[in-house]
Amino acid sequence: MMTQVTKGIKVSVQTTFEGTFFKNYKMHYAFGYTITIENQTNDVVQLTSRHWDILDSLKETETIDGEGVIGKKPVIQPGKSHTYSSGCLLASPIGAMTGYYNMVNLASTEEFEVEVPTFKLAAPFVLN
């Protein structure tokens, strides 16, 4: 598990390899990830948007920006956490993801970025 703390917000990532399949006559590798965002501050915060750079060893880096996570903009109380699961497809069995969340402190209205630790995506059969 990868973990990183930015401005009192702890982000932990767990990854899984979901399998291979053909799409558009090409092999694809499916990966899942579960992320827990824990508020270790004394203020209520809200996740407003996300930024991802998806690195695939056989393709150019794909950048994704969007509102919230999986259709939600979670409000996280002090000492509480929000967990969600998502996934991505790669053209190769090896890659990585990195990014950040845009968040707002609801007490001060301060906006800030929370780094997501870079996490590797690797099919077990390529690791020796």
From TrEMBL:
Residues of the ApaG domain: 3-128
Coiled coil stretches, renumbered: none
Gene3D superfamilies: ApaG domain (2.60.40.1470)
Pfam families from the UniProt entry: DUF525 (PF04379)
Protein name listed in UniProt: Co2+/Mg2+ efflux protein ApaG
Organism ancestry: Bacteria, Pseudomonadati, Bacteroidota, Flavobacteriia, Flavobacteriales
Annotated gene: apaG
